[in-house]
Amino acid sequence: MQKKEYIKKMFAGISYRYDLLNYLLSLGQDRYWRRFAADKLPSGLILDICSGTGDVAVEVSKVSNKSQIIAADFCEEMLKLCAQKIKDKNIKNIYCIQNDAENLSFKDETFNGAIVAFGIRNVSDIKKALTEMNRVIKIGGEVVVLEFSQPENPILRSIYYFYFKKILPVIGALISKRTGPYSYLPSSVMAFPKRSEFVEIMKESGMKNIGFYCLTFGIVTVYTGIK
Ligand SMILES: C[S@@+](CC[C@H](N)C(=O)[O-])C[C@H]1O[C@@H](n2cnc3c(N)ncnc32)[C@H](O)[C@@H]1O
Question: What's the gap between Cα 135 and its chain centre?
Answer without folding.
Answer: 18
